[in-house]
Design goal:
- This protein is α/β, with parallel strands linked by helices and 233 residues long.
- Helix content is 44%, strand content 15%.
- α4 links the parallel β3 (93-97) and β4.
- The longest helix is centred in the N-terminal third of the chain and has 24 residues, at 66-89.
- It is globular and about 60 Å long.
- The protein starts with 6 loop residues before the first strand and ends in a 9-residue tail after the last helix.
- The protein binds farnesyl diphosphate (FPP).
Length: 233
């Protein structure tokens, strides 16, 4: 493939429906989803993708039953605890975007710790969007900017997109080139609203637990055929 996207972002959707179709508990779908995430991390890194962002928990997901929320938190913790070495060996850098404040301490510590541990790695960056909301991110950035102006005398004139981008959670990370959403839903669900402005979108009916390396390659092939004009001719 001659045109590999630098940054691929994925809304991993359909774990619950995948499980439901099989008469299984939703937790089975999520566990299968983690396996798929691992497969896609490996495939993306093999194919030369530089940044892979995975949307694992939105600020709206708190409204799910307490048991499911707790399960998703533990799943992420176990993922980080169990796969740390593998990701290290693959030279992968890990970064979390989202609000750490309301997360249980055991998880926010783990996230912090894992981010620091892999900070020096030079391979693909895996960005995990957890307790993430796009509007919240933009509001947080506006707040940080205002504080910077008030406290540090940051210049308020001449604010451009690049400078503002520096206040976002994704500071230093290039915008996604390709967004994949699984399970047939065709919406953004408050995901990377600022960063997706010029992104190519790819929707598939496949549920996330069935989205393997082959499907990922198919999405990248579709991307390679697109003509991006960024508003120009
Ligand atoms: C969507 O399925 C998925 C989520 C809410 C996020 C959870 C994602 C995983 C467990 C996979 C990757 C995890 C890690 C830690 C890398 P859904 O529950 O919205 O499905 P539904 O729309 O069919 O109900």
């Amino acid at each position: 493939m001659d045109k590999i996207p630098t940054h691929v972002a994925i809304i991993m959707d359909g774990n619950g429906r995948w499980a439901g179709e099989r008469g299984l508990a939703r937790s089975h779908g999520h566990r299968q989803g983690v396996k798929r995430a691992e497969e896609i991390i490996n495939a993306a890194s093999r194919m030369g993708v530089k940044v892979l962002t995975l949307f694992a928990f939105s600020t709206e997901n708190w409204s799910r039953p307490k048991r499911e929320v707790g399960m998703l938190m533990r799943l992420l913790y176990n993922f980080l605890a169990g796969r740390a070495e593998k990701l290290q060996n693959r030279n992968i850098r890990f970064r979390m975007i989202g609000r750490k404040e309301n997360l249980p301490r055991y998880l926010s510590d783990k996230l912090e710790n894992f981010q620091a541990k892999t900070a020096g790695n030079t391979g693909m960056t895996v960005v995990l969007a957890f307790n993430y909301g796009g509007r919240q991110e933009i509001m947080d950035a506006a707040g940080k900017y205002a504080l910077d102006v008030l406290k540090n005398g940051a210049v308020s004139s001449g604010l451009d997109e690049e400078r503002f981008g520096g206040y976002l959670y994704t500071s230093g990370i290039p915008d996604p080139d390709l967004l994949i959403r699984t399970s047939g839903e065709m919406r953004l669900s408050n995901f990377m609203l600022w960063q997706l402005s010029y992104c190519e979108l790819y929707f598939t009916k496949t549920f996330w637990p069935d989205f393997g390396a082959k499907e990922f390659e198919k999405a990248l092939k579709s991307y390679a055929l697109r003509q991006r004009r960024f508003g120009s001719l």
